[in-house]
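Fold this sequence, please.
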Amino acid sequence: MIAKRNNATLLKIPSEVLTSGRYKPDSDEYKVRILYNSYLNTAARNRQGVAPIAPILRDIEKIKNLDDLQDFLIHYYPYGIGCMYKFYVAPDRKNSALNAFWVGVGSTGLERDYYFDADKRDILEKYRQYMIKPFEALGDKKILAEQKANAVVTLETKMQSATLTKEASRN
């Protein structure tokens, strides 16, 4: 009952912001409205294609060695782009009264189990097939897109191999 009431209350906030025209352009509410509507405007996004991320793609193309990769990651880390690792503070595993500094795997397309569990191989293969499409959309021929998709899945598998299983992370 309380959860339903809270959800209804929380849903009123964005609903009111999105439907009311009373907010000034410099207000946070107006900015939320513009951002939310831009997410829903798929026709405009489709017309833009990759143009909004073209500068990032050019910077990715410039990566030729480990130093270039490091420079790219340092530059884009504050924006949450291309982060192969993450830094955070969380309770220490041996003494929960203390906080510890942690370094972990950044974002991968799937959770750890999908890269290693035999019963999830079909999902991993579908993911690999899906990963071909973005490379083709960026102009790569099918064979090159397949090679890049395979490289992404291989890299993500290596990254996830360094993480704890769900069971081990609870101990």
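The two ends are 34 Å apart (CA to CA). Strands lie at 85-91, 99-105.
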